[in-house]
Automatic annotation (TrEMBL):
UniProt protein name: Sialate O-acetylesterase domain-containing protein
Cleavable signal peptide: 1-22
Keywords recorded for this protein, A-Z: Hydrolase, Signal
One example of a Gene Ontology biological process annotation: carbohydrate metabolic process
Keyword Cell wall biogenesis/degradation: no
Boundaries of every Sialate O-acetylesterase domain copy: 107-233, 285-395
Source species of the chain: Solirubrum puertoriconensis
Length: 514
């Protein structure tokens, strides 16, 4: 990882020093072409000389708001916004004058996670991983949406929480959209088309990152289940030089094997985690999330989890803890948080999908887009991102934008009843009925008291699925799509797929791994 920077305490001190000796200075996020959350009390902040009076006047109201910078030169105001519209201008007056131009009032969404959120509409040069969306040639010429704007946060890590991030606001056009996060673009496009509202996207994502990288250090320190993450990281720092030398040797061997045997299936060796690694706990949060607080949001969309599959059981608590801490940071306790369930891939176990499902079921104001029908068993970056953005948008349209009758979830398992040697499963979100696409239901397994699962037959009866196997005369548990790469065909009438699930709570391989 040599393409990122570590923001050192010295650099952070320099930034603060500059802010204390300059006149009015704004964070990168508050800049020309930005989108501010409509019909809210939005946070605007920056730096000035200590004790300097700063007056902020928005052109949508022409009502000035005055604040005095504190002893560190920091200032923050809350400015009421009206209905969506623009363009507007912000005027800031202290010892100097600043103007922020071409500001829209609309809907602001933070888009975060790892590589599948990064994945751009267009292919990245010299990057097999970011190969562009399947319909790029169709999408780009039509991407003329000047009211959709994206701020992409520069990839950086930091030892301590930073006051500012790098990036700029870009309006969506056929010339610029290729660099947009594809999932975020398709999400915004559908909401904009339906509501006609301006959409601001703050894209803070980085490939290969675990959830702990995006989590505040104090959250990890204060929970016994998360402290092993910090301890493991510290041990790795102590042996980093030796581990790095061993890694280079193993990688050379691996590359030689691949050259001799292109069909080699074993995984490449893992690079050790050093002080500047984007896999370090809490450091992405410090450099790429903390500087965005308290920019007022409508909600969050999140696509991450692949790098936590090895400790998926831990993710059951880590992911909700991340959500809770972000809501606390933004002082928005009901901040909507919609996320993508990990797609089928040979490296992704069913437990990570279960951890995400359990998060949705337990944490209020969350929602999950299921994409079991849009994966790629050999590519961790499936190229059909339109279906991902579409399914995230269904949650937002139904929950945030008044389309209360819009189906937003596929079938979700509710309960099991055993009768005459058959398991009867009840489901919620059976909009338009339960549906098997392209033949009989697939991917159901069933077990008796011995906990051994057998392939099962399954059929739909109303809003129930009946599951049985002659090998299991006394069923006690059912699992659906419970493997790394399932091929399910279970939907509701609205065309939304059912989430993988299990009815049992038996011990799983990652349970106990911290």
């Amino acid at each position: 990882m040599r393409h990122h920077q570590l923001l050192t305490p010295l650099l952070a001190a320099c930034l603060l020093s500059l802010s204390a000796t300059a006149n009015i200075r704004l964070p990168a996020l508050i800049a020309d072409h930005m989108v501010l959350q409509q019909q809210a009390s939005v946070a605007l902040w920056g730096w000035a000389d200590p004790g300097e009076a700063v007056t902020v006047t928005p052109s949508w109201s022409n009502k000035p708001v005055r604040v005095v910078a504190d002893e560190q030169g920091k200032w923050l105001v809350r400015v009421p916004t009206g209905r969506a519209g623009g363009p507007y201008e912000l005027s800031l007056v202290g010892k100097n004058r600043l103007s922020v131009r071409n500001v829209l009032l609309g809907e602001v969404w933070l888009c975060a996670g790892q590589s599948n959120m990064v994945f751009p509409i267009s292919k990245r040069p010299n990057s097999g991983s970011y190969s562009g969306v399947v319909n790029e040639a169709e999408v780009l010429p039509q991407a003329n949406y000047p009211a959709i704007r994206m701020f992409t946060v520069k990839n950086q890590v930091a030892d301590t929480p930073q006051p500012n991030a790098e990036g700029s606001w870009v309006a969506c056009s056929p010339q610029t959209a290729g660099e947009f996060s594809a999932v975020a673009y398709f999400f915004a496009q559908e909401i904009h088309e339906r509501t006609k509202l301006p959409i601001g996207l703050v894209n803070s994502s980085w490939g290969g990152t675990p959830a702990e990288s995006w989590t505040r250090r104090e959250v990890l320190e204060q929970d016994a289940d998360f402290r092993p993450i910090l301890a493991r990281y510290q041990r790795g720092l102590e042996t980093y030089e030796q581990d790095l030398a061993a890694y280079h040797s193993k990688r050379q061997e691996y590359q030689q094997e691949r050259a001799a045997n292109p069909g080699l299936r074993r995984s490449a060796p893992r690079e050790p985690i050093g002080a500047t690694s984007n896999k370090s706990p809490y450091k992405n949060y410090n450099a790429m999330i903390h500087p965005l607080v308290p920019f007022t949001l409508r909600g969050v969309i999140w696509y991450q989890g692949e790098n936590n599959a090895e400790r998926a059981y831990q993710y059951r608590r880590l992911f909700p803890a991340l959500i809770a801490s972000w809501r606390e940071e933004w002082q928005q306790p009901k901040l909507p948080f919609y996320f993508v369930q990990i797609a089928p891939h040979r490296s992704q176990n069913p437990e990570i999908r279960e951890a995400q499902l359990l998060t949705m079921l337990a944490v209020p104001q969350t929602g999950m887009a299921v994409i079991t029908d849009a994966g790629d068993s050999t590519d961790i970056h499936p190229r059909n991102k339109q279906v991902v953005g579409h399914r995230l948008a269904q949650w937002a349209l139904a929950k945030e934008y008044g389309e209360k009758k819009r189906p937003y979830s596929g079938p979700l398992y509710e309960s099991l009843r055993v009768q005459n040697g058959q398991a009867h499963l009840q489901f919620s979100h059976a909009h338009g009925g339960l549906v098997a696409r392209g033949g009989p239901l697939r991917e159901f397994t069933i077990a008796g008291p011995d906990s051994i699962f057998h392939p099962a037959q399954a059929k739909i009866e109303g809003n129930q699925v009946v599951v049985w196997s002659k090998e299991v005369p006394q069923p006690v548990a059912v699992r659906f799509a419970w493997q790394h790469v399932p091929y399910p065909n279970f939907y509701n009438g609205a065309g939304l797929p059912a989430s993988p699930f299990r009815t049992d709570t038996w011990r799983t391989p990652t349970q106990g791994k911290l």
